[in-house]
Amino acid sequence: MKKTREITLVSLLAGLIIVTGMIKIPSFVPGSEFQISAPISVAIVAVFGFWRYIWAGVMASSILFLLGLHTILNVEISMIFRIVVGGIVSVFGTSFPVLIMAGPIGSFVARLGLAKTLDVTPWPLIIAAVPGMVFTMLAVIPLTKVLKKVTKEVGYFDK
């Protein structure tokens, strides 16, 4: 029963990452729309832990890649972001300042990785990501509170 619950939870989290990744909010900077999956991802790692988050992220990226909705570059950015965010939250805890800074740091490092892969200067990529970083900082705390409340209401951690 416990394995079934764990598989179901990770699958649901992967679905949440996929769906929220499809929701794009336009930005005032052309070409830099923002995916709402970033603050959701930080909230997921804060509430459910590093390994569930990483497995859900691997599952989400694999599904999107296999469906042709993501390229290998999208997967690279996503996985760098996930490892950095998950590492920060795992090492420094789930205090609000840590959660607020984890997303922007993850985005920054992911853009550095993309710039290295493409052999381009990273600053245009980073500047384009700034509106999303700000939105992540603003949205992560309310989303984390919602996820905590949902898990409490359904009694997930009581079982």
TrEMBL record:
The lineage of its organism: Bacteria, Bacillati, Bacillota, Bacilli, Bacillales. This is Energy coupling factor transporter S component ThiW. The chain crosses the membrane at residues 7-28, 40-67, 79-103, 123-143. Keywords: Membrane, Transmembrane, Transmembrane helix.
